[in-house]
Amino acid sequence: MTLHKNKLILVSLSLLLLITTLLAFNLQVANAAAPSNTISYYMNTINTTTHYNMGYAIGQDHLSRIGTQSEVIILAYGGQNSAGTGLTLWSQPDATYNQVRDAIIQVARGYYLGTGSDTASRLRILVGTSNSAYQVNYSGGSDYAQMINDIGSNLGVYASQVYLHGANDMEIDYATATNTKDWADGYDSVDSYSYYNYGDAAGCTTSTTYTGTTDSNCAAAINTWKMSDIYYVSWQIAASRVLPQIYNQSMSKQWKNLKKYGKVSKGGSMNISGTLTQQGACIGSSDPTCTGTYSPSSAWTDLNDRLNADTDTAQTLQYSTDIRWY
Amino acid sequence: MKQLKNISLVIIAVVVIGAISFTSFQYLGADAAKSPNDNLPLEKKEQEDWQERKMSAARAQNEKKPEGNPGPSKIQIDSPIITEILDFVDDPLRNKVILFTNGWISSKENGKSVSVGAGSLVEDPEQGVLLIRQYDEKRSMVEANIINTPDKSGRVTIKEFNKMILTLVTEDGKELIFNVESEKFN
């Protein structure tokens, strides 16, 4: 009787220990603290001194911190211009691809020099355009990839601490899915460096019971994409990665569902690299989309917890960045 | 004696299970801390690994960083701003907040500049609207305002300009005069 009782105690204790361990691990992932966010910029300028100083300041910041840093920034130069020669710089005079190249090289130089004796820290630079303007087609994607390749070929020793990527703010209401996928195919045809989609999933389902089996429409104000379209340009195509806009709870739900769709319907495990917020761009702004916009930590935590509450979407979210106007 | 033996077995078993659990916890935790590239599909991993090798090769150059802050290696400045009407307005608010028709940009004193985007609100296409962005001498955007037209006469388009005075046309053909300096309709 005593032996039986002891066996019972043994089994119970073992189970308790195992359950506690598993719970503790899940809690660690689900309740992970948001990383400190970087500042990304809408860029109106290709002034190389400005770009160098930006990189240098980030390098100095990394040097001042304890340990090895690895962060990401997006520098968004607007869509590609009508002439096919460069980027719009938003409303400012267009910049040529060579001018953007030279500006980015100076960011890399500034970071490399700013880190000083810290030769381990890294900066991931995402050189951003959008599907909002012109050249949203195969040759536009190819041209953009060529510019990124050109930047990479000219980084020299700065490449010892800088990762380089293209980036595109792919938004549902900026261009059609067909045109945007063509751009992605064009980029993929010649790229040496992957691109990050830092766009949205406007109109996609926000249901918390979405099972991932339906390729639903994402009907925004102007255009309608399919979930498969967004998945294609964000993960399915070899050149793509994704660091989406998480400005509010709806966006967090949309991207969780997109990852679920990818897993269940496509058999792919889309890795979401981090979260992009717009808190900085909203300071002093009368933009109505700024009401209730997420802080960087809230966005990261919301998406992290949402992803890790589902075994189909569980992952580690690496980065947090917040965009503002330069 | 037998009871003591059983208690010892229980204690040993708990310690062993605990050790296994702790090790698993550490391993799982360590797994999460492995390179984020490890779980990528092959094509993506190859691309990331290629950049890692490029990074290693650059590091192997063992180039000594110059001391201090030597500044940029190339000086490049922005193109001058020509005051003109813009056929296309590229802006993060495009198609999300504002349906733009056209725009305008002008240089101002001391290297500053201002841009105006004209159109209507996405949420209320009857409401004409202007987006004014002010930039300092370094092209840094310092202020932005969204200004509604006095009446809801549909989208507005910039027809012409005279210095900082814009003539706008509404969807129903009405002309409006807008003073960019004061950001007010006359």
Q: Could you state the oligomeric state of the chains shown? A: heterodimer
**What is the chain-wise order of helices and strands of chain A?**
HEHEEEHEHEHEEEHEHEHHE
Strand content of chain A: 15-25%
Q: Specify the overall morphology of chain A.
A: globular
Strand element count of chain A: 12
Helix content of chain A: 40-55%
Which band does the percent of strand residues of chain B land in?
A: 25-35%
Strand order of the largest sheet of chain A: 10-7-6-5-2-1-12-11
Structural class by helix and strand composition of chain A: alpha/beta
Output the structural class of chain B.
alpha+beta
Strand order of the largest sheet of chain B: 1-2-3-4-5
The interface involving the most residues is between: A-B, 90 and 78 residues
Average pLDDT figure of chain A: 94
Quick take:
Chain A has 326 residues and is an alpha/beta fold. Chain A contains nine helices and twelve strands.
Characteristics:
heterodimer, A: 326 residues, alpha/beta, eight-stranded parallel β-sheet, two-stranded antiparallel ribbon, B: 186 residues, alpha+beta, five-stranded antiparallel β-sheet, 2 helices, 9 strands
How is this fold's topology laid out?
The complex is a heterodimer of chains A (326) and B (186).
Chain A: H1 2-30, E1 38-42, H2 48-64, E2 70-76, E3 86-87, E4 95-96, H3 97-114, E5 122-130, H4 138-153, E6 162-169, H5 177-190, E7 195-197, E8 217-219, E9 224-226, H6 227-236, E10 240-242, H7 249-266, E11 274-277, H8 279-282, H9 296-308, E12 319-325
Helix pairs in contact in A: 2-3, 3-4, 4-5, 5-6, 6-7, 7-9
Chain B: H1 2-32, H2 42-59, E1 84-86, E2 98-107, E3 113-121, E4 128-135, E5 141-148, E6 156-162, E7 165-170, E8 175-179, E9 184-185
Antiparallel strand pairs in B: 1-2, 2-3, 3-4, 4-5, 6-7, 7-8, 8-9
